[in-house]
Write a sequence for this structure.
């Protein structure tokens, strides 16, 4: 079986892939942060969904990055996971 990191490294040689990956980077970062908050809280997707009064499939879509959550949804997720939502803007130079 091929490791995802190996595939990403190989595909990163393609400028079109690199550009698309960089465009989607913030969505991946947000999805990763949501998954980490749920995992730290020790919750399954179904348990988080119950706490947020939604369905497991909604949580799955949020965590996949296919759906962009509203700030209101992020606040509800923070409350459900016992965390605090903090949104920041960073200098583009700091990200490089």
């Amino acid at each position: 079986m091929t490791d995802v990191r190996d595939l990403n490294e190989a595909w990163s040689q393609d400028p079109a892939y690199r550009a698309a990956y960089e465009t989607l980077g913030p969505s991946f970062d947000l999805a990763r942060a949501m998954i980490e908050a749920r995992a730290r809280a020790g919750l399954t997707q179904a348990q988080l969904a119950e706490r947020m009064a939604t369905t497991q499939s909604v949580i799955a879509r949020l965590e996949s990055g296919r759906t962009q959550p509203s700030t209101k949804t992020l606040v509800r997720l923070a409350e459900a996971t016992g965390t605090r939502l903090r949104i920041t803007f960073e200098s583009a130079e700091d990200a490089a």
In short: Residues 4-95 form a domain with the 434 Repressor (Amino-terminal Domain) fold (CATH 1.10.260.40). The mean pLDDT is 88.
